[in-house]
Amino acid sequence: MRIRRETVAEQCVQLLRRQILEWRLVPGEVVTEESIARDMGVSRPTVREVLNTLIVEGLLTRNPTTRSLCVTRLDCGGINEIYRVRRLLEAAGVRAFGALDDVALQPLAAATATLAAGRRDRRHPRDRAG
């Protein structure tokens, strides 16, 4: 296994992303450069880089009037868009795997079984290892 070198900004992006995805920062919550810099103990230029990354990913939204940042809220249109894209991706996946034989599909079948077991247990598969 190789050790992955990460910049401070990459580490901060991962931390802030995890806080958003785990709802420790909730949709609509205001996020400021000052508070992030203070809480993470990093410089404001680093925080700006981190926030810009999360804006591009769609996890943060900048209010065009006040220029403040907040955790993105999904509306019905956004949720519908996610499901529409998911449907397209899943259909493309089915077409791509449709021509493969059973041996080639074994890794996919194993991954599906792991996900199904995690769903039954209501735990993420990676949380069960160990």
Automatic annotation (TrEMBL):
Keyword terms: DNA-binding, Transcription, Transcription regulation
HTH gntR-type domain segment(s): 6-74
GO molecular function: DNA binding; DNA-binding transcription factor activity
Pfam family, one: GntR
Entry-linked InterPro entries: Tscrpt_reg_HTH_GntR, WH-like_DNA-bd_sf, WH_DNA-bd_sf
UniProt KW Iron keyword: no
Entry keyword DNA-binding: yes
PANTHER family in alphabetical order: TRANSCRIPTIONAL REGULATOR, GNTR FAMILY, UXU OPERON TRANSCRIPTIONAL REGULATOR
Protein name listed in UniProt: DNA-binding GntR family transcriptional regulator
Organism field: Amaricoccus macauensis
